[in-house]
Design brief:
2 helices, alpha+beta, YaeB-like fold, 30% helix, globular, 5-stranded mixed β-sheet
Length: 83
């Protein structure tokens, strides 16, 4: 089963603020997450609305996402600086 992804406006803003090489790396990572939606993230945090958000750290950035397995869709919510 193939999954698709959608990138939230906040994540897009972060992507466009990056230089082209870093932007490409982050987009490649988003695609990798989409190809392997069952892979373990680096960590999970529960947001104030109760949603468990997966975090994958790559370099100086954290890709924050959640997966809707029923819809086969990965929601890329944000790209934050890595803590």
């Amino acid at each position: 089963m193939r999954y698709s992804h959608t990138i939230h406006e906040d994540a897009l803003r972060s992507l466009f603020a990056l230089g082209i090489p870093d932007r490409r790396k982050m987009l490649n990572e988003c695609e990798a997450i989409t190809r392997r939606p069952f892979a373990e993230p680096d960590y999970i945090r529960v947001e104030s609305d109760g949603r468990a958000m997966s975090h994958v750290i790559r370099g100086n950035h954290a890709i924050v996402y959640w997966v809707d397995h029923g819809a086969r869709l990965v929601y890329i919510s944000r790209i934050d600086p890595a803590d």
